[in-house]
Amino acid sequence: MLPSVTQWRSSVRVVPSYPAVKKYLTLLPDSTHLSAAAFCSLPAANRVALLVDAPSNPLTGLPTTAGIAGALLMEISCVRNANVAQVKIHSLGVHESVQDRGLASALLMRAVDVAVAHVIDDPNETGAFVCASALSFCLADGLCRRNWDVLLLLLRHGWRIWTQGAAELLVGHAHRYRAEKRSVYEFDLTVAGPMVPLRGPVLYPGVQSGVQLFKKPVQLAAPPPRITSRGEKWTKSYKINDNLQRGIIPLCVESGVRPLPAKGLLPFFANVRDCQVLEDYLADVANHTFNVTTDKHDREILVHKLRLPGGTELEGYMDYGTLNGKHDSLLQSARTLKTKGKAQVHTALMELPGCRDILQSAMERLGHGGITVEQMTNALRHLHILNLDRHAQVDFGWHEDTYDLNVTESQRDTTLSIIVQLSATFTTAMQLWGFAYHEYPGQAAGVVFHGRALHRSVPRVHIPHHRAVWKIAYFVDASALPSRRVGAKSKKPCEAC
């Protein structure tokens, strides 16, 4: 099984001032090993190499002579009179056997951690880094600037790239140019890395975790009051949250998988490659249409549609006002998509790139790794796609999914919500009522929780300008998942619920 981003990241070997790094890089792309000579000529105190060993082929498990699966070479220096430490990435490359497997993303994340530690904990002899208040990232001149794979990776991690004439290059544009095999030499590109404040820990460029990142609970919309009248929808939601705290409700009865006691949900990682493929499709503006029209009340509305490869169109929604901030129907329509009916659910699962494999990862985490496509399609009831940016039209306040989705009464207690973050631009967070909030570690991070549990989004204090995170939400009926025991009868929902 291929390593996840987290496993790749933990396997990165930091090699400061490595004297013979060039000989280890010969089987990596030219953009990496041809830069080694120039890198090794830099002052020893300022150069850091990040290497990932490859004792065996990640695909076959057999020994390989590659030696190094991936490498990132960077230079850390101080900008005079600017109180800023500069990190210049000279090269970034991975072996062809692990292309698009999350290793390059893990190297970039780890590079930020190393740079922060180097600047804060290991100042050079002159003390030039001691007073630095921020890190500025940039990409050195060389073959990396001419590599669409490297530029796409940087765009996904919050970097900004402009073409001649100050037109900003988006992920969808870069993906299309790469598919068309257009040379980067055709474009006069300006590459600008983000400024990273030296407050941490830092996950990747432009992203802080925990400290002053998410709004405090008192800044959020208050949850609905506890109502004890029999039959009211919130009564059951609060009861499920209380039982989750006691750990007596499994997410999946047949496999006995239970959520984390501290957070009430089950985290997992999807394959990074699947998430990147789906994000690329969603970020391509050519796949979307936007039309402004009026409804029967002469209200101006925006009709947003995503065209699937087979021609089916998913449409956005605009009237969901349960948000932590101000609701704007036009902005919300442009940032949401949902399926209508079982036929669209099946079509989206089969046609959206990476969509089926991401759900398969969640099924494996729930103990249903052998589930077939037909069984997965039968269990999937709804599919939503969300785009979170500074307008916060998908920053949802306290709610529970089964009522919002008009799930039938027989499925309310067995509906599971599965949310996966597709982008690496910045981190997001959510919280179940009565539990600590959960921060998604980044791209390909997902969670599974009971759809009838009361929960909310936890909005960030600041979202980078012109940056967004794509998410996908699956709503699955757990009672429709196959039994793991031959001849076993489906169990009724927990009586405590």
In words, what does this structure look like?
The chain is of the alpha+beta class and 497 residues long. The chain folds into 2 domains: 5-208, Aminopeptidase, CATH 3.40.630.30; 217-480, q2cbj1_9rhob like domain (Jelly Rolls). 23% of the residues lie in helices and 26% in strands. It contains 13 helices and 22 strands. Helix 5 (148-156) runs antiparallel to helix 6.
Strand content: 25-35%
Count of individual beta strands: 22
Structural class: alpha+beta
- CATH homology group of the largest domain: q2cbj1_9rhob like domain
Provide the CATH topology of the largest domain: Jelly Rolls
Mean pLDDT: 80
What would you report as the Rg, rounded to the nearest angstrom?
24 Å
CATH architecture of the largest domain: Sandwich
- CATH class category label of the largest domain: Mainly Beta
Total domain modules = 2
Main sheet characteristics: 6 strands, mixed
Helix content: 10-25%
Q: What strand line-up does the widest sheet have?
A: 1-2-3-4-5-8
**What is the overall shape?**
globular
Helix run count: 13
Q: Report the end-to-end length measured between terminal Cα atoms.
A: 37 Å
Outline the low-pLDDT stretches. Answer: 58-63, 122-130, 200-207, 485-497
Summarize the structure.
23% of the residues lie in helices and 26% in strands. The protein is an alpha+beta fold and 497 residues long.
Describe this protein with a few key phrases:
13 helices, Jelly Rolls, 497 residues, 2 domains, globular, disordered C terminus, Aminopeptidase
